[in-house]
Each structure stands twice: as C-alpha cells, then as structure tokens.
Specification:
The chain contains 17 helices and 15 strands. By secondary structure, the chain is of the alpha+beta class. Among the domains are: about 30 residues, no CATH class; about 140 residues, no CATH class. The strands form six sheets. A three-stranded antiparallel β-sheet has the order 5-6-7, with no helix packed on it. The chain has a three-stranded mixed β-sheet with strand order 11-8-14. Strand 5 and strand 6 form a beta hairpin.
Amino acid sequence: MPDESYGTARHSGLYYVAGSCYTVKFMRTIFLLLLMFFLLLLSGCHDRKERSAPAKPVAEPTAVQVTQPGCAGCHADIKLDSKHSFACTDCHQGDNRSREKQAAHHGLTAPAGMTAVCGRCHAKQTRSCAQSSHSTLKNEVDLIRRQFGLAPLNGMEEIPDRSGPPQNTEQLVDDLLRRRCLRCHVHTAGDSYPYTQRAVGCAACHLRTTEGKLDSHAFSLPGERQCLSCHYGNHVGSDFAGMYEHDYGSDFRSPQANHEPFLRPYGVEQHNLVQDIHRQRGLTCLDCHNSLELSGRQPAVTCADCHAPQPSHVPPLNNMRLEGGQLVLIGRQDGKKHPVPLLKHPAHAQYSGKVDCQVCHAQWAFNDQATHLLLTYAADSSPWRSLAVQSNAEAEQFIDSEGEPVMSDALTGEKKPGIWLQGYTLRRWEQLLIRQDTDGVIKVFRPILNLRLSAADKDGSVIAGLDNITGSGDGLLPYTPHTTGPAGLLYEQRFLPLLKSDNASPQQPPH
C-alpha cells in the first residue's frame, strides 16, 4: 500500500510537471505570435506613412443637371399663391423652355410696370392706383411747391429734371423734391435700411420682403411692414406703432452703443411711445384705410363715421357689420370681430363741429420744428460729423466716408453731384400744437412745412440768393395724429382758451 501510495503520488507529480512545461511552451508560443503581429502592424503603419503623399486637389463637383426646363428647373422653391399660379415668364419675360441659364434669363426683367404687367388682368385696379396720391405723390409735391410760392403740378413726373447747381428758389425746391423728399414712391425700392427696402410697383404693397428680398411670391393684402416701409421717419403711420425718431445728434440717441454697425431698422433709433389704441386692440392700417380710399375713389374715413353713425348710416367700411344692433369691425388680417364703441360722453355733443376728436384723444403728436435742409457740393463733411445719422443712407455714407457729395435722383436713379443734409432746431412730441383751422374747427397741427432751405457750392460758400429760404407762413398744417387713446381729466384745458377768444395762433411748447 505504501508503495502504491508513493507510486500514485509520484505519477501525479510527473503529470503536474509535464502540464506545467506544456503551459509554459503554450504561453511562449502565444507571446511570440502576438509579438510578430505587433511588429507587422508597426511595419504596416510605417509603410503607410512612407507611402502617404500630399492630397490631390478634390475636383470641383460637376454642375447639377437641370432635368426640368425653364424657371422651375432651378427655382423649384418658389411658391405661388393660387390666384397667380402661372408661368414666371408671364410677368418676368425670359425663356421658359431652356435648360441653360443665360438663354433662360434672356430679356429677364423685374415687373415694375403696373399697367404693362399687372394691368393685363387687373386693369381697373392699376388705373385707379396710377391716379392715386400713393402713385403720383401729387399732394406732397404741391404742398412743398406752394409753400415756396410755386405753381402746383400734376404729379412727381412733371418735376423738371435739371443738372448743375440750382440758380433760384424753384430749382432748389425741385431738386429737394427729386432727391430728398420723394424716396418713398412705389416705383423705387426704398432706402437701404432693413425695414425700408421693398419691391416696386404693385409688389411694393402686395409682396412681403425682408431686407429687400422677397419672402415669397404669394400676393396678399398689405401688412404693417409694407405700410411702414414708406410711412416711417416721423410721419403719420409710424405714430400708430408708437415710434418717434430720436434726435440726430449722437449725444441724444440711445442706446449709447459702443459697436458699429448698430442695427437701425428705420435709419434712426426710435422712442417707444404709447401705440394707438386701435393697434393695441389688434387692428392694422387696412382695417380703416381700404383700397377705395387709398386709390382716391372714396373720402377718408373719420372717427364719427364709425363711432357716431346716424340711424340710417351705412357702415363706411366693407369689413364692418351690424350684428344684433352692435356695429362690429372684422379684422382684415386675422378675421377677429371688434365691437365698435359708440360715443356716449356729453362732451361729444357739446363740442361737435367745434373741436376735432384728436384734440382730446391724441396721446402725443409730431412736433419737429424748423427743419433745416442744406444742398451742398462741398466735399468736407466734418461739420456734420455729430449728425452722422440722417434718416437717409446716402447722406450718412457721405458723412462717414468723406466721399464725393453725390445723391440719387429718386425718379431716374441717376446719381448727381450735390447732397442734401438735414437737421432740426427742435424735436419734441409731448406738447400738442392746437389752433383753429380756416373752417373754424379746433385741430391738432404740426410744423411739417416749417422748412429752411439753403445751398452751398464746392467751396462751402452759400450760393447767392439761396440762404435760409423759409417760404410763406409758419409751416403749420392740420393733421390727424394716429395716437388715439382715452381723453384725460383735463382734456378741456387743451382747447377752451381758443373757444373763449378769436385767437387762432397755436399753443407753442415751452422752450
């Protein structure tokens, strides 16, 4: 037994030793294989590094092949509204059969001609629009010419186109009209500020743009953005939105930005004043001013037309309804129903025909007194450095860059020598100017024609006879501030002194 036990133990030991030897040899083999694999891997990386060379320039991708001929082959993203879903060439010309860009764009044009393009389908509308004050700007032209004793014209197209420095008042006024005043007619693309750029012709009002580029080709009713692309800069329209321009002087504008350029959507920073109560309720310009009024086929709507209708009164606007004895205005943009409140306060009957509504209800008004305008041919812009904001991009560029004094003719687009620069004696909004009009009714006035015109030659010297020309009268004109709101407790103090006397002079603000 002992021998067997010893033998068994001995044999087990031999097995253990043999197994250990086998394990060592196996592990050694595995190690050698891993080492060889690692060396091969290093060799491969080294070979790749040696074989690497500078990358060859990537060939330009070949032009995308247009599979569909005509405009849609390249402009597939253009979406049209259902009423204008026809070939692009019907309005833009060009060749709608070609797959080649140059051939497809041959004769391409922007459809600025309302009669030639839109008039083929909308003859009645384009005729009335062409005769409206929005198209001819006759009212603006005549107001300024009459202020300086000049005969009225039939519209802006009749303003003489002259070259060279003006020699008399009429030539100076006409140059002012063509190059500074009439930048907003529908046949120009507007000034280069973000919110004042627009399309031209019918598209100026009926297509939406962002910084001069069309948002889409879907025609729609004009929105506030389209209206304010012209009615900005302390004119009726911007007051509806509560916007009043800051002073031009850099020390009187805010925020005091320390970086350039600073975004000014309408050219000048704006005071954010109280908006017209109609806008606060969600109404837009077209809810009161419809196409019939804008085209001159219907008188302008008045406050009493809606808020004090006669028993047999027909609603003055086609978006108004009488529902259950209540007059309701339906918003053109959102379709929302707005109940129209009727006048109930006894003051309305007491002062009817004597005092205009806005004398009591205007919350603020434009009061830019003494507008100074200088036509200069001098290249030195340093005296105007503090007034580098001008509400006119060309004037601002001249002051900033000290370049040549040139300015575009708004009617022809031609750049001509000389540039109009502008400043004010006083810019205020809190004090209303109130006086009796020629019809005896007390109204709100504004000094829109309180102008001072001058001209200087290349040396900066005043041109003979063209220094501080003021025109006739005080330049005050009645207007309707679009800043309607509740009348204050002391509303009568605005006009009672005028009712008690024959004094028709305006109440001047304190200086």
